[in-house]
Specification:
The protein has 108 residues and is of the alpha/beta class. It has 4 helices and 3 strands; from the N terminus they run βαβαβαα.
Length: 108
């Protein structure tokens, strides 16, 4: 059985992790994220840094790139960058729903 691909508008999602060099766990996470992104017509932008300050910069870079979504793993002090991301764009539920502005429908 062949699995199909999503027939949806292409989106860009940044995945920012606290992966340390040589950590094979995060290599597996990245491969899974890349496979899911390919299936769902998503451009995945992956970046990682084990240092919280550097990771916060990676989150800010994603904000500056105006990606459609940001996923962050947080080992410690990245809340400031995450708060900045929340302020820069409205939050949408992660339940898979799509904002009305993207689907062309309204909730009138």
């Amino acid at each position: 059985m062949r699995r199909g691909k999503a027939n949806t508008p292409r989106m860009t999602v940044a995945l920012v992790t606290h992966q340390a060099p040589g950590d094979t766990f995060w290599d597996i996470v990245r491969k899974g994220a890349e496979a899911a992104a390919a299936k769902d017509n998503i451009k995945l932008v992956y970046s990682a840094d084990p240092n919280a300050g550097s990771q916060a910069n990676l989150v800010q870079n994603a904000i500056d790139q105006k990606v459609d979504g940001i996923a962050v793993t947080s080992p410690s002090r990245t809340p400031c960058a995450v708060s900045s991301a929340r302020r820069s764009r409205p939050a949408y539920p992660s339940s898979g729903s799509t904002p009305a502005s993207r689907t062309g429908s309204s909730s009138a």
